[in-house]
Design brief:
- By secondary structure, this protein is of the alpha+beta class.
- The protein has two domains: 196 residues, Fructose-1,6-Bisphosphatase, Chain A, domain 1 (2-Layer Sandwich); 129 residues, D-Maltodextrin-Binding Protein, domain 2.
- Helix 2 runs antiparallel to helix 3, helix 5 crosses helix 8 and helix 6 runs parallel beside helix 7.
- The longest helix is centred in the first third of the chain and has 20 residues.
- The protein is globular, with a radius of gyration of 21 Å.
- The relative contact order is 0.13.
- It binds 1,6-di-O-phosphono-alpha-D-fructofuranose.
- 1,6-di-O-phosphono-alpha-D-fructofuranose binds next to strand 5.
């Protein structure tokens, strides 16, 4: 076939990173490779789908399981969670783990403990599994607090409460038409495509950069009646197109798989919003800070984009709960900054008029 085959493997890339940045620790290289191995196993299970009985709800002796989020667990959620644990806990690099699918931190028992914490969403976009659409696994690597490293004690939830800016590495695997592994170890973002013949992730996207401007946005518009005024304003202005205040037409996308939206944005720009809204006042947002917003936000910023709650940089937030939710906006820097400006500006009087708030381009 007439294409030039990429020659750098994920392993070689990690070794090279260590050489190029003499101050960077290479300690987590093996951990990243373990995570990548888990992702290959999950990719195979996703690809086999019904053939391997991988679709549908997870049912065990206690019936259908509901996770700490109150969401029913699918077979692949459980499989991906288990696989990530099994492939990484023997490495000796981890002090503990936390996952969307586990209410409490996972302890490393009867094995050597290491200096890092692994946080992950084993299968993001679960509603897409049974319809064979793109899903992914998201992960973040933190340094364990010094007293954990020094004493080797069990980890507590509080040990994971570190702002996104202190992540050592973050990334995701995308189970799409091809399987990809996208990674930042703090020096830019690189993308690898799984070569199914070699079983290796090969470097195909060496330095991913997000264009600062875009004409594409992603938001679940069925929530529009719950949006806060700055978000309504932003979306209305995009929808108004060439004749509106933005003076250009926009396109809209929604895959219902944040990791897939993030990948599209890393590839060609765009802005993603799952903002805080009034749908469920008990929830500060939909997406989880530690294993969704922080790793994806880290990748965005490493690729020149931005991640924000709308009010402040997402990576600066001090986590207070393992499964904390936040409102999240990320993508092309100029658009995210515009949305932040809209949140910061005093709201025009008309936004306080209930009649106006009810009316937008989505609600006549
Ligand atoms: P899971 O981690 O439970 O699969 O949730 C996926 C997700 O949080 C995120 O990937 C999507 O942006 C969002 O849900 C889609 O939700 P809706 O389309 O239902 O609003």
């Amino acid at each position: 076939m007439p294409f030039s085959s990429p020659r750098t493997t994920l392993t070689q890339y990690l070794i090279e990173q260590r050489r190029r940045y003499p101050h960077a620790s290479g300690r987590f290289n093996n951990l990243i490779l373990d995570v990548a191995l888990a992702c290959k196993a999950v990719a195979r299970a996703v690809a086999q789908g019904r053939l391997a009985d991988m679709h549908g709800l997870h049912v065990d002796s206690e019936g259908v399981r509901v996770n700490v989020q109150g969401e029913t667990q699918q077979k692949l959620d459980v499989y991906a969670n288990q696989t990530m644990i099994e492939m990484t806990e023997n490495s000796g690099h981890l002090a503990g783990m936390a996952s969307e699918e586990m209410p409490e931190p996972w302890q490393i028992i009867d094995r050597p403990r290491g200096k890092h914490l692994l946080v992950f969403d084993p299968l993001d976009g679960s509603s897409n599994i049974d319809v064979n659409m793109t899903v992914g696994s998201i992960f973040s690597v933190l340094r364990a607090p010094e007293d954990v490293i020094g004493s080797g004690r069990d980890v507590k939830a509080e040990d994971f409460f570190q702002p996104g800016s202190s992540q050592l590495a973050a990334g995701y695997a995308l189970y799409g038409p091809s399987t990809m592994f996208v990674l930042s170890v703090g020096h830019g973002v690189a993308g690898f495509t799984l070569d199914p013949n070699l079983g290796e992730f090969m470097l195909t996207h060496p330095d991913i950069q997000i264009p600062p401007d875009t004409q594409e946005f992603a938001i679940n518009a069925s929530n529009s009646r719950f949006w806060e005024p700055p978000v309504k304003r932003y979306v209305d202005e995009c929808l108004a197109g060439k004749t509106g205040p933005r003076g250009k037409d926009f396109n809209m996308r929604w895959i219902a798989s944040m990791v897939a939206e993030a990948h599209r944005i890393l590839m060609r720009g765009g802005v993603f919003m799952y903002p805080r809204d009034t749908k469920d006042p008990a929830k500060a947002g939909r997406l989880r800070l530690l294993y969704e917003a922080n790793p994806i936000g880290f990748l965005m910023e490493q690729a020149g984009g931005r991640a924000s709650t709308g009010h402040q940089g997402a990576l600066q937030l001090q986590p207070q709960d393992l499964h904390q939710r936040i409102g999240l906006v990320f993508g092309s820097r100029n658009e995210v900054e515009r949305i932040e400006r809209y949140h910061a500006e005093p709201q025009p009087l008309q936004w306080h008029n209930p009649l106006f708030v009810e009316r937008s381009l989505f609600i006549d």
